[in-house]
Design goal:
CATH architecture of the largest domain: Alpha-Beta Barrel
Radius of gyration: 20 Å
CATH class of the largest domain: Alpha Beta
Number of helices: 14
Distance between the termini: 36 Å
Number of strands: 16
Bound molecules: zinc ion
Strand content: 15-25%
Low-confidence stretches: 134-147
Largest sheet: 11 strands, mixed
Helix content: 25-40%
Structural class: alpha/beta
Number of domains: 2
CATH topology of the largest domain: TIM Barrel
CATH superfamily of the largest domain: Metal-dependent hydrolases
Mean pLDDT: 91
């Protein structure tokens, strides 16, 4: 048998998060699950879950959490010359490094085991990752901090084609809203990263004015244009998109990351949950994100509470939405607890017995 085992009173197994009781997980020396055994009785009160997937965040502004004036709008908070950009532009390397790792540790505390971190600032902005951990393709293990079972997909933001060539060796491409770039540069960035087989994720339709300006200039929305021309594996925000655009995404099988708490803080319109429901938008294409660390320090449970109020989902779908990145190609089903996958689970203490997914939700939201 493998080099390590874990026992769990309850565990959510496989892509359907089936509840199993009294299980022993066997891992080999590479952390791969080689067996899931049902045993007689486990004496701890643990629930093993794959952990939450935070599909969109920016760790760099962690130090601004609760330190920005209230009443500011999107541009004032995170645009050019904003509270956030001024902070990022003047921070030291050590501050950035600190922010990145505190954000990771907070994620672990909040039962997050996988997240996509959009790092601003080109090469300098990704340097702490390169300096502090061993790169395993696009996924990172924080081995030097002895933090296991948290994986980060890092999306870099090149500031020139030269930077793109270097960054694409190790990282994905995280595109700020496309209005900020000349079209030729966008296409070239995408070509460079795609050649290196790295994921491309794009912010779209967060800011209504900019979305409308793009629509006026090109005849289609930034969402549709980006989806057609930039080969994204994930579109971020989409909060101003209309029904026909969600229909288009559904046909393309293109997943989205919804950052509702962030939209509320920046006073942009929250996604049209009802509209999604009306066109029967597949829940598999929906992922939740916490966005800027100045708003949320790597926490997905708030997003679950929000979605519970606005979107009529059964508890199984709610858990899947918050845990499984199953339609994002670079992360495709890496996250399940099942034989043959790498172990990425985390344990939650439970006080009462668990018989269904409703019980699981009430325990993890407690
Ligand atoms: Zn973002």
């Amino acid at each position: 048998m493998g080099s390590r085992t874990f026992d769990a009173k309850y565990a959510l197994i496989g892509e359907d998060l089936i509840i199993k009781e009294n299980v022993r997980i066997h891992l080999n020396q590479n952390n791969k699950i080689i067996d899931i055994e049902e045993i007689n009785n486990v004496n701890n009160n643990s629930l093993l879950i794959p952990g939450f997937f935070n599909s969109h965040c920016h760790s760099g502004d962690f130090g601004l959490y609760n330190k920005f004036p209230s009443g500011l709008n999107l541009a004032q908070l995170v645009g050019d010359n904003s509270v956030k950009s001024n902070y990022l532009n003047t921070m030291t390397y050590n501050e950035l490094s600190d922010n990145i790792f505190k954000f990771a540790k907070n994620g672990i505390k909040n039962f997050i085991t996988l997240y996509c971190d959009f790092r601003e600032g080109g090469i300098i902005g990704t340097q702490p990752y390169l300096d502090s951990a061993n790169i395993n393709l696009i996924n990172f293990n924080f081995k030097q901090l002895n933090i296991e079972n948290i994986n980060v997909t890092i999306l870099s933001r090149p500031e020139s084609l030269e930077e793109a060539k270097i960054l694409s060796n190790n990282f994905g491409l995280g595109i700020r809203d496309i209005y900020y770039y000349p079209i030729d540069d966008l296409i070239e960035f995408v070509n460079i990263y795609a050649t290196n087989n790295k994921p491309i994720q794009i912010h779209v339709s967060e800011d209504l004015e900019k979305r409308n300006a793009w629509l006026n200039d090109t005849g289609e929305t930034d969402l549709i244009w980006a989806a057609k021309n930039l080969s994204p594996e994930l579109l971020i925000h989409t909060n101003h998109a209309e029904q026909y655009e969600y229909q288009f995404l559904k046909e393309q099988n293109l997943p989205i990351s919804i950052c509702a708490s962030s939209n509320n803080i920046t006073k942009t319109k929250e996604i049209d949950w009802q509209g999604l429901q009306e066109i029967d938008f597949p829940t598999k294409l929906i992922n939740l994100g916490s966005d800027n660390a100045m708003f949320s320090q790597n926490e997905i449970r708030n997003e679950i509470k929000n979605i519970q109020l606005k979107f009529n989902l059964d508890s199984t779908d709610l858990l899947k939405i918050s845990m499984l990145p199953d339609k994002i190609p670079s992360l495709n089903l890496v996250h399940n607890i099942e034989i043959g996958k790498f172990f990425r689970g985390t344990f939650v203490n439970v006080k009462k017995s668990i018989t269904n997914h409703n019980d699981v939700i009430s325990h993890i939201l407690d």
